[in-house]
């Protein structure tokens, strides 16, 4: 890895991202920067290639060098292209600019690797880091954020109160949005579907308020940059957009949820999201077919 030249850079051109400092501390030039990577496997620091300060996601280029030069950096993700839980992990890895191998799972015929990696729940996503599996999407997000601290944007805020709040909303999304959404979509009776619909709409309204509060007038839950809540909800973007076609319910309204509508457009327009978010029509067709067959989605 051609890092030696970079190591000789004058300190005035370097952005130092110490192991627990978020965001990176900038020293010198405002427009171009170099990053220091604190290796999770060894106590050594590497300065990575230059990134534009204007776009934290261009650190992806730098990560390619880590992948090439850090012999113990090996990430493999088991997921499905449409699952909101695997999608949030892919979003997080992309936003952090981490390279990883992706294995698409067939839930009707789960791979040996999945069954061995997640023997308890046998579900995706599973992230395998240097051969060690990590299960449960929220645990994976936190793991990635901790291990690759200083690489790309931090997902969880540095402040303990803000961190607790981000975790609160992530749990809310799982329990009060995703679970009722599912009930609305595959509920066995009309009563069950109707309950799911009411709960989902109530959750969307609550999340509109949460976005206003967390973003402090900026675009994302994380403020100017995408953070933990953004990627957690991000996994649901295509499902939310497909809700009208799948359940006959309009989830977002220009008058009732203008912030979430704006969030969705901005989030979906970012390159790290664009490359993984499923195409809504494809998702709708697939989900309808699976619902008709009553098989795992
Ligand atoms: N709480 C889990 C949920 C994961 C989950 O439900 N995954 C689904 C796909 S979206 C799955 O693997 N289902 C397979 C099964 O139920 O056997 C997480 O956050 O990772």
Structure summary:
With 297 residues, this protein is an alpha+beta fold.
Could you describe the 3D structure shown?
Belongs to the GST superfamily. Tau family. Keywords: Signal, Transferase. Residues 1-18 form the signal peptide. Residues 73-152 form the GST N-terminal domain. InterPro entries: Glutathione-S-Trfase_C-like (IPR010987), Glutathione-S-Trfase_C_sf (IPR036282), Glutathione_S-Trfase (IPR040079), Glutathione_S-Trfase_N (IPR004045), GST_C (IPR004046), GST_C_Tau (IPR045074), Omega/Tau-like (IPR045073), Thioredoxin-like_sf (IPR036249). α6 (160-186) runs antiparallel to α7 (190-215) and α6 (160-186) runs parallel beside α8. This protein folds into three domains: 4-69, no CATH class; 75-147, Glutaredoxin (3-Layer(aba) Sandwich), CATH 3.40.30; 160-293, Glutathione S-transferase Yfyf (Class Pi), Chain A, domain 2. It has helices at 4-7, 59-69, 84-96, 112-117, 137-147, 160-186, 190-215, 228-234, 237-241, 243-247, 258-269, 271-274, 280-293, and strands at 15-16, 25-26, 32-38, 45-52, 75-79, 101-104, 126-129, 132-135. The strands form three sheets. Strands 6-5-7-8 form a four-stranded mixed beta sheet, covered by helices on one side. It has a two-stranded antiparallel sheet with strand order 1-2. The protein has 297 residues and is an alpha+beta fold. It starts with a helix and ends with a helix. The chain has 13 helices and eight strands. 49% of the residues lie in helices and 12% in strands. The radius of gyration is 20 Å and the shape is globular. Residues 1-69 have low confidence and may be disordered. β1 (15-16) and β2 (25-26) form a beta hairpin. The longest helix is centred in the middle third of the chain and has 27 residues, at 160-186. Glutathione is lined by residues 83, 85, 107, 122-125, 136-138, 296. Glutathione binds at residues 83, 85, 107, 122-125, 136-138, 296.
């Amino acid at each position: 890895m051609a890092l030696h030249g970079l190591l000789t850079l004058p300190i005035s051109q370097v952005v130092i991202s110490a192991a627990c400092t978020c965001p990176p501390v900038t020293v010198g030039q405002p427009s171009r920067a170099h990053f220091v990577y604190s290796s999770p496997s060894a106590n050594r620091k590497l300065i990575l290639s230059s990134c534009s300060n204007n776009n934290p996601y261009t650190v992806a280029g730098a990560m390619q060098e880590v992948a090439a030069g850090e012999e113990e950096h090996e990430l493999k993700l088991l997921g499905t292209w449409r699952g909101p839980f695997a999608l949030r992990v892919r979003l997080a890895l992309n936003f952090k600019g981490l390279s990883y191998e992706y294995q698409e799972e067939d839930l009707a015929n789960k791979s040996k690797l999945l069954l061995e990696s997640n023997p308890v729940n046998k579900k995706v996503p599973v992230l395998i880091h240097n051969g060690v599996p990590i299960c449960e999407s929220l645990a994976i997000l936190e793991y990635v954020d901790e291990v690759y601290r200083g690489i790309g944007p931090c997902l969880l805020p540095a402040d303990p109160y803000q961190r607790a709040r981000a975790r609160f909303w992530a749990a809310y999304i799982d329990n009060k949005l995703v679970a009722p959404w599912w009930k609305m979509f595959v509920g066995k009776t009309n009563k069950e579907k109707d309950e799911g619909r009411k709960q989902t709409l109530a959750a969307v309204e609550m999340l509109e308020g949460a976005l206003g509060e967390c973003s402090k007038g900026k675009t994302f839950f994380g403020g100017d940059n995408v953070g933990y809540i953004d990627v957690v909800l991000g996994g649901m973007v295509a499902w939310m957009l497909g809700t009208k076609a799948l359940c006959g319910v309009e989830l977002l309204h220009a008058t009732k949820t203008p912030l979430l509508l704006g969030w969705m457009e901005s989030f979906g327009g970012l390159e790290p999201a664009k490359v993984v978010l499923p195409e809504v029509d494809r998702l709708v067709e697939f989900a309808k077919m699976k619902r008709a067959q009553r098989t795992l989605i």
